[in-house]
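We were asked to recover a plausible sequence for a given structure. The inputs and outputs are reproduced exactly as logged, with field labels preserved.

PROBLEM: sequence recovery
POSITIONS: 150
GIVEN STRUCTURE:
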């Protein structure tokens, strides 16, 4: 089995009121639809994760839960360091991903966008629910696709 990495930014969220904490922001209606759509796209491409590393924020957890039962049943590591993580923290998570497995890393910008750009060697925009699929070739990651919900 190949070593594969799915790097995903949470689906679209919104503030319910002006006093809501960033960590507690839920997905909006479009974000809910997008999470379901990306989950279906990943399964149709055969990219079911063996392990999930996810930020514990409300919007990342909702994104994961809406992606489908196959994603929820996967071994899930909730890591508070992934909330608004920098490149070095995200790279550390990537380096801890097991070989010969598919790992889903689900987090936030700007870190997700910086990580995808770093791994691909080219600047990449990662809007809400954008999902980058990488395969490991020897020691380097090769970008296979960037999935978008629309």
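RECOVERED SEQUENCE:
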């Amino acid at each position: 089995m190949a070593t594969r990495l799915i790097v995903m930014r949470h689906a679209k969220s919104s503030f319910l009121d002006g006093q809501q904490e960033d960590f507690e922001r839920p997905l909006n209606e479009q974000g809910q639809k997008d999470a379901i759509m990306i989950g279906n796209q990943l399964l149709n491409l055969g990219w079911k994760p063996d392990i999930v590393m996810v930020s514990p924020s409300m919007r990342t957890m909702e994104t994961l839960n809406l992606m489908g039962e196959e994603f929820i049943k996967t071994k899930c590591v909730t890591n508070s360091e992934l909330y608004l993580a920098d490149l070095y923290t995200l790279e550390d998570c990537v380096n801890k991903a097991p070989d010969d497995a598919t790992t889903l890393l689900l987090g936030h910008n700007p870190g997700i966008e910086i990580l995808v750009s770093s791994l691909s060697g080219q600047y990449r925009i990662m809007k809400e629910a954008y999902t980058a699929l990488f395969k490991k070739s020897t020691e380097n990651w090769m970008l296979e696709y960037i999935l978008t919900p629309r």
